Amino acid sequence: MSSTLAPRRAARTDPGPHGRRAPRRERLVGRLATLGPGIGYLTVFMLVPLALVLSYTLFHRGRFGGVVHEASTENFTRVADGLYLGVIWTSVKLAGLTTLLALLLGYPTAYLIARLPRSWRTVALVLVVLPFWTNFLIRTYAWIILLNSEGVLNRALTGVGVIDRPLELLYTPGAVVGGLLYAYLPLMVLPLYSAIERLDPQLREASANLGARPARTFWSVTLPLTLPGVLTGCVFVFVPSLGNFVIPELLGGGRTVMVGNLIRDQFLKARDWPFGSTLALTVIALLVLLLMVQAWAARRLAGGNRA
Amino acid sequence: MSDHHAGEPLVSIRSISRRFGDVRALEQVSLEIRQGEFFALLGPSGCGKTTLLRILAGFEHPDSGSVTLDGADLLAVAPHRRPVNLMFQSYALFPHMSVARNIAYGLERERLPRSEIRERVDEVLTTVGLTGLARRRPHQLSGGQRQRVALARAIVKRPRLLLLDEPLSALDKKVRAEMQLELKRLQHEVGITFVVVTHDQEEAMSLADRIAVMSEGRVRQVDAPVPLYERPADLFVADFIGANNLISGVVTADGLRVPDVGLLPCPAVPDTVGVAATLAVRPERVRLGADGGLAGVVRDVTFFGGTTRVAVDVAGLDRPLLVTVAGAAAVGLGDKTRVDWSDTDAVLLDQT
Amino acid sequence: MRRFNWLYIPAGLTYLFLYLPIVVLVIMSFNAADTPYRWDGFDTAWYGRLFADRAVREGLINTLVVATGATALSAVLGTLLAVGLARHTRSKLLDAIAVAPAVLPDIVLAIGLLAFYTAVQFTLGLHSILLAHAVFGTAFVAAVVRTRLAHVDGSLEEASRDLGATAPQTFVRITLPSLAPGIVAGALLAFSLSIDEFVIAFFTAGPQDPTLPIVIYSMVRFGVTPEINALATLLLAVSFTFVIAAQRLSRLTESF
């Protein structure tokens, strides 16, 4: 064998002057040229602003607005006050209820769309997304027309004779949940659809073939395998619902106050930025907690599926 | 390109090593590739052959060792400046460009005059037999046609060295045989040195002038196809190239002694008496129904058309002995028979 | 015979729920009455009123200026970012930074930017909204381009280098054209999100130049006016055309 081989040289321990150095420089240039602008931009216009908000939580409001740079934990004790905690709790409840309703409506819808013939699937999906592409405020406005005491729904109901006096529909927590659901339902359907569509239909067939009834197959096969999509959809709906202030204002009529309204008022009316920042930090903390639970659940599911 | 000096070393690879974390992709690899030859890097997947190819192309860099081309350091040259071109396994044809634009791409980078580019593109299209398809997009071509475009795009640059990464793996069986002949013809015609990477030993045997068999990051043997087949240098090569009967025993003056079987014919190698060794004998070298040799029972008969492979159970051997005979076999399942071979048809190998 | 599929009930409810308000809006936009609660016959007068409304017209122009600028900026930053994240780093932190604007509640980004602009004494106006919208625009373009990048054969870029192209030449001639459908799709997304965006615009707008969503907000808050119905119908028609066009475009580029 050795006759055809070139004589061996002693192994060199250092990488040598060539080979690695030139491409390393080129890689650095490539990295800077591609990542530099975007990360730089997001640093200035996102990370620095967020850091600023974070730092405000330690300060307090000056007599005429503005921020007094004296560190204290005063803002946090205020958030813990019953009134504000109550608003945060209401927000979590309403956003949670919205998410649950979105899941109950969205899952069967997504399931049905995923089972449609391919050509119809696109149409059905576009129809789900389309309202999402009209202005968010106009969609909310549509609900005012529908729910008003003289609105379409009440007139229809009185007209048919189901009720004799108009119902108080607008300016209720129910109206707020309806508005939130209307605004974010497509965000639930889309991830659910992609999770269900990816599911191998042979798995359901195998389950049926092994003697499981449709309901059993759903609980034992379909639902566990699409749970990552469920979690994603829930986060997509819960997050924007929690921080929303427009829908509670327009459909809640100021009677249903959510944490978003508090933050908005602190920044634009009371001009107490430190306290507004602290409320915002509370929202972020809740969301980070939620994302951690989601990541944990997704990891557990992935492990469970592999086993 | 007719003025090349066949046989002169073109590429010298010396003691190249490359690790990826804990994996040793290449361990002290040294090779010479000669001017004008068709060279193959053959080995199972993960043997390091692709890493070596990518080092030659410039997309990978060795941790240590050197590579020279025409005596000059190749590793210091950026990939786009090397007189080396690669035909990718996926062909990597640019989907947004026509066939002609794909082929012209490399020439445009050399800032050649338009007229010369057009001339050379036309010329190479004729060479690979694709005249008339210049305006097509890659997705409008068949697999074989795509491969010809990839080849044309690489050879039009007139590289000193053309690398081909598993060139035939994406083709179906019939087109593959056709392209195999085509590749050989082209290599003769353009006179460029070809280095092909493949895991398919038949492909390597039929294409290459010389083959380097690799396993686990090391070169096991470099040889022309016939010696490689007939005189494997070690157990790995003997087992990897073609079918082989491998039997372990101890060398004696009269043959290889195998416990419970007896003395088996093998060539005499000086100073090996008493050494544990493995005997390798090709199925087509084994005689079936001989007078002497080993007694056995036919366990399986598989008919391949031109040849038949017979598996014979021999008492004392843990694997059945394979015998290839021309045409149909004269024996049937369960028949008692004898197998034998001449000592010069067997090869003795170290057991490591 | 096939059994009735019970899933049709919740799915039907979903579509009814999604479209009932929209249908009511469209019908009401052709209502002659000056209140949406009574039907006085078919009329297109509200459209005339809408076109004559200066605030709406200026709001629309402002919105288009902001969306166009933010989209252009996002397309450049997002595309580079996507290539960088996919090919030049394995950093989880940079990954997180790049998706953060898409996950962050809008109000958090809004107050952050307001605080930031105030701290550096940046005058508020269309430019401050534009820069703010480019934050989430960049994130969405980067996300869309990255999914596209996952489908692009990495050996194309190596092939280009192998044939003698420098790294910048390869980026312009091979990487960008392969990514074009993704860049267009991402830019469309960024554009439509910017057009629709209210919360961040509301916090970062100057007093002079409200965008269309801000104009709509004050109209809705001020009271119910049928002009909004006409505007809603028009916006619906535009987004409908937009969606269909995008669908066609993506089908066209799928063969690519």
How large is the count of helical segments of chain A? Answer: 12
Low-confidence stretches of chain C: none
Instruction: Give the domain tally of chain C.
Output: 1
CATH-defined architecture of chain A: Orthogonal Bundle
Classified in CATH, the superfamily of chain C is MetI-like
Task: From the alpha carbons, calculate the radius of gyration of chain A and give it in angstroms.
Answer: 28 Å
Report the sheet-strand fraction of chain A: under 5%
Which of globular, elongated, flat, extended, rod-shaped describes the shape of chain C? globular
* Count of strand segments of chain A: 2
> How many DSSP E strands of chain C?
0
Overall mean confidence score, pLDDT of chain C: 84
Main sheet: strands, sense, barrel of chain A:
2 strands, antiparallel
CATH domain topology of chain C: MetI-like fold
Protein structure class of chain A: mainly alpha
| DSSP helix fraction of chain A | over 70%
- Total domains of chain A, how many? 1
Give the structure's gist in a few sentences:
The complex is a heterotrimer of chains A (307), B (352) and C (256). Chain B has 352 residues and is of the alpha+beta class.
